[in-house]
Every structure is written in C-alpha cells, then in structure tokens.
Design goal:
By secondary structure, the protein is an alpha+beta fold. 54% of the residues lie in helices and 9% in strands. Helix 4 runs parallel beside helix 7. It is globular.
Length: 199
C-alpha cells in the first residue's frame, strides 16, 4: 500500500491529517508542495489548489475532514472519534466548529480576497485575533469530563483544538491559559505527544 500526504509548510489542515496518520501508526510519505506548485502542477492532484491531499494506491482524497473520516474507517486502530454514536457526534461538533467557523475565516486565501488592502503583518494580526476570539467563545464547551476536549479519551477534537491554538500563537497572539493547560494535558499522554507533527 502506497500512501502519500501532500502538505505545505504551516498548513493547519495538513497537520491534522499528519497527526491522525501518526497516531494510528499508518506509514506514509509526505510530499511538500510549494506555493508556486499549488497554483500550477499540483492542480492535477487537487483541482481545489489546497493541501492536504492524500493518495492511497491511486485514490486521491482532499479536504482534511473527508480524509480523516476515510482514515478512521479504513484504519480502525486507535479510534479518534469515540465508540458511541453520541460521542462521535460530540467530537465532530467541535471539529466542525474549528474547521468551518474558526479556520475558514482566517484562511490566508480568504483574507487575500476579502481584505487585499491589508499588508501581511496586519493580515497576520487579524488572523490571530479572529482565532483567539473564537477560542475564547469555545472553551466553555471543552474539557467538561476530563482534560481532554471531549469525553475522557484523546480524540480528533483534541487535535483540531490544539492545532488551531498553536496557529494563533504562530500569528503572535497572547497565550490563552485554558488552551495552554489543554495542550500540556494531551502531551502528558505519550502516543498523543509522539504523534504530534512538528510545526
């Protein structure tokens, strides 16, 4: 089986998939896609022009949530969605909030289109402020049963939350104590820590 993950430096969405593959101990090859390639040769792999994309024996998948759902169903070891129907819905709920509400609005491509007048420094600051604002509204829904984002086990919700928090720090935002605590908590679990992608 040949698995290729197409990624790009700093891609939050690609890091989600990488963390999932690492956590499930699925062997893959990572291919770095340059900014120029995203708009040219890479379009034959993913016509949307975004990373990640995942190739499994010739099947090309795109969009991080769809890729992760495929991985979760094909490689059932170390489940990241939980066992019960209710838990799976709860995990997906948090992931979708991060993916659709937080991540999309701060996406560089979206900001370049909506706010072309801003220079890169102002865009970076705006991205960080947006993520922080949303995370401040989200934390009352997290870690209700343990230090994990949802329930009492490491899940996909922890991955999505941790990575979007790391993204706001990369944009120069101030630390948020609640999310610092969450990040430390999940890193206390060896498999979660070992599988976390490097920034």
């Amino acid at each position: 089986m040949t698995i290729i993950l197409y990624s790009a430096k700093g891609s939050n969405s690609a890091q989600r998939v990488e963390w999932v593959l690492n956590y499930k101990a699925v062997h893959y090859r990572r291919v770095e896609v340059s900014s120029r390639e995203l708009a040219t040769t890479y379009l034959t792999i993913n016509p949307f022009g975004y990373v990640p994309a995942l190739s499994i024996d010739g099947l090309i998948l795109s969009e991080s949530m769809a890729i992760i759902e495929y991985i979760e169903q094909r490689f059932t070891q170390n489940s990241l969605l939980g066992e019960s129907l209710g838990m799976r819905a709860s995990v997906r709920r948090i992931c979708e909030y991060v993916n659709s509400t937080i991540h999309s609005a701060q996406n560089r491509t979206v900001l370049n289109f909506l706010r072309p007048e801003l220079d890169s420094i102002l865009k970076r600051r705006l991205r960080g402020e947006w993520i922080s604002k949303c995370l401040n509204g989200l934390h009352s829904e997290l870690c209700l049963d343990s230090g994990f984002a949802v329930g009492t086990h490491f899940s996909l919700a922890d991955i999505f939350v941790a990575l979007i928090y790391k993204k706001t720090l990369q944009h120069g935002s101030h630390n948020l104590p609640f999310y610092d605590t969450h990040l430390r908590y999940i890193r206390d679990f060896p498999l979660a820590k070992q599988s976390e992608p490097m920034a």
